[in-house]
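Co-fold these.
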Amino acid sequence: MAEHSRRSRSALLFDEADWNFDTLRRTYDAIEEVARKDLGLDVYPNQIEIISSEQMLDAYSSIGMPLMYHHWSFGKHFLTHERLYRKGARGLAYEIVINSDPCISYCLEENTMPLQALVMAHAAFGHNHFFKSNHLFKQWTDAEGILDYLDYARRYIARCEEQHGVDEVETVLDAAHALMPSGVFRHRRPRQPSLREAEEQRQRRRAAAEQNIYYLWNTIPNRPGDERERDAALLERKREMRLPEENLLYFLEHYSPVLESWQREILRIVRNVGQYFYPQKQTKVMNEGCACFVHYHILNTLHAEGRLTDGAMLEILHSHTNVLTQPDFDDPRFQGINPYALGFAMMQDIRRICDEPTDEDREWFPDIAGKGDWRDVLKHAWANYRDESFIQQFLSPAVMRRFRMFALSDVANETQYTVTGIHDARGYRHLRDILARNHDVATLEPDIQVVDADLLGDRCLHMRAMRRDGVPLDATSREATLKHVERLWGYKVELEETDPA
Amino acid sequence: MAHFVDRRLNPKDKSLSNRRRFLKRVRVQVKRAVDEAVRKRGIADVDRGESVSVPSDGVTEPSFQPAREGGRREQIFTGNKTFRAGDKIDKPPSGGVGGAGRQGSPDGEGEDEFLFALSREEFLDFFFEDLELPDLVKQSLKEITRTHPHRAGYSITGSPANINVARTMRNAFGRRIGLRRPKDKEARELLNRIFLLELVSSPTKEQREELIALRAERDEMMRRRRVIAYIDPLDVRYSYFEQQPEPNANAVMFCLMDVSASMGEREKDLAKRFFVLLHLFLNRRYEKTDIVFVRHTHDASEVDEETFFYSRQTGGTVVSTALVKMKQIIDERYPPSEWNIYAAQASDGENFGGDSAKCATILSQELMRICQYFAYIEIVEEEEARLINSEASGMELWEAYRQVADIWPNFARKRVSKASDIYPVFRELFARSHAGEKNG
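Predicted complex below.
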């Protein structure tokens, strides 16, 4: 019996390029064993769905979610992807994985069996573990509720379309989508109610919203009462609106004087979807790095045990290196730092620092150098960091040298760029600071806040964009987006750009 | 424990409704592109998809973005070769380091044009739009020809119902010979000999030895017969069927047009739509559709499509020459017993004095008997169409054709001043085809 199980453990998992459900299952089990016993990963139950290329295109266009409400912009994305794919300009992703419980991964039917193995290790264990353990996802997303919520959203929006017409709903959605990036809470998050609570809350909100409007009409000017009383009322009102407010969608949903309750609910839905994706934006490097590290470790382990053929391993490594290429800055393929390459390199390097530290590592990372237990260090990092802090904490001189990184500053009215630092002893800390800052979503997205809503006068909505390093807003998109804000607010909207004092 | 789900058979086109919404949003631009395509394409390949590009300002999804220029920014690049801290590098005129620092637009598409492909169905929808076709007709035009399974050799997989016994047995037979499987007859003979030898009450030494040898031979033979199957799964063949379009009779479509100077761009464009519509109809009903272009002034000639629509000729207008030419071509190449003959004639209604009666005679006495359908459109100015609102009055040719229409139910004529006027010419044709479908 013991011998039998040893033999089956070392037997090949598959030796053909074609897959079938038996080989998939067998390979999955082998991967799971390494993932759980060797790496000690903690994952949501997996649901692996095999889909065709057309279904993959469908999934692409609805921002990767299995169900989504209808909107023309998804159709537009579909057409773009389809055209590129048909032209052969772009291949399809091998997989899409959804942060839900159970964790759903879509695998393309055209993948060969070695690729399916790669995809399962990458998505079903790498990403899955990251979703389940990273603090941002834990804190901000509800893996077990998202599919129900999207289902609710789709049915709600379909019902609105029936009641109010497709065009009306489209107008609101257009405007809401424009504000989606500015519709997230960056610092606080309200407790997430269950589905039933949400429904009850919605009813209450609707009632409250009606009262709000009533209150608004009561505060129109010319009412008897002295100046001071009005000023006090204004201050009180502003305090109640919790100004300044950086979540534009939240503000409009609650305080817009013109929206009907169904329109407010649509804003809320869009806002929730945006919020759901916010942690993913902040952890691109870590998320992909984690998945790549996990698949690389698992598949190498299986290969070493003799359960993958050399041919399969070569094919896996070929795809692996394709994804992890970091072109040089003067290469036409260069599009910035490849998050897969950076994340994977940093995590491999953490393992190296734990196992075989150099003197430099001991100086830079005294608490992990030579510690030996890289699994714990990595799991701790995966759980408690986001891209910005992860880079700030773990980017080592060795990685900076390997990528031959250098920093370039671009000041608007100068005719030349300046190299502000390279991969040498004087530049390491500077490079790390810059790279970390460039991976901080808060500095990548414009900082726009509602500062005042003059409800007692002309009801003009005042917003302020804080320029960072003097970078202005893009003029064309600024005007187009402001139109959408005006549509939702119903009155004049002013956006002022200021430099911090 | 993982749960595997095979979704490949789930309905595709999940984003079809999103796609429709998008097309609705860019309707005007797409319509223009489709009209342009109809103008450019040959009649026979109107029903294909088309690449359409629309200006992206109607379909941008704006959001607040930091500008690409201005302010102070600092970025990390990889692959340093010679730079040292403090180096200065000249900015290229367009900004960005060798194009490297530039980022694509937020949603990764080009900046001024959005390009995508229309499917055949969508293309036809837009084409039909201002022809004002009834929905049923649209549906039946878009429909692909019916198919019929045809034998196409053998395959090694298939459903049990399709097993090809003869081919399977032949394979099995060949394999049995090739592997030298002992035959039934040989086996029987051997058993017989053993049986006979066993009957001998006091066998000689030779007989005993022969019996032992025969028994050994029998055991070997039985083993071989067991190991080499009579019919092996390898031998099984299935008949393979391919879906082939229903073989229909052939049709030929004659496009007759007056190309004298009075036919301008507008007239020709309307005429083209008229021909396209008839061709779509024929293409659906018939497997093979030939198109013959006959143009005429005072003299008729057969030309190719390019010449038909785009080259100009001067001269008078004698319509009957075209009909004579058509008759001549039919006699030469399209025997009515083998071809369904359709004709579509477009003209501005002018004709050489006295010739119209001759046209009517040729039609009534010769052509209408062999034509399935003859459609005539008279292209008029829009103001003119308002003036001549009665069917009865009109120019000489119109009058003459009225007599033909009275006698022959498969003759249709119509005055057309805009695209939506075209369909009624064919109304009867389509109506008839539905009646036929029901009966058939």
